[in-house]
Design a protein that fits this description.
alpha+beta
Length: 63
């Protein structure tokens, strides 16, 4: 599984960091960034939750 961030849509709300801190972080521009690629299997459920809860739909999941 892979996730990506659309930097044009991201507002830096950090919802993804809340649900999947092992997968996402905020970069120096306060935009979400992927920490690990591909996502470890143990983090799949957290990554799915982060994608589903993103208020700007800035995250894309590729299974």
């Amino acid at each position: 599984m892979r996730v990506s961030v659309d930097r044009d849509r991201c507002e830096g709300n950090a919802i993804c960091v809340k649900y999947a801190p092992a997968v996402f972080e905020l970069d120096d521009d306060e935009c979400s960034a992927v920490r690990v690629d591909p996502v470890p299997e143990a983090e799949w459920e957290n990554a799915r939750k982060a994608v589903a809860e993103c208020p700007r739909a800035a995250l894309t999941l590729q299974e």
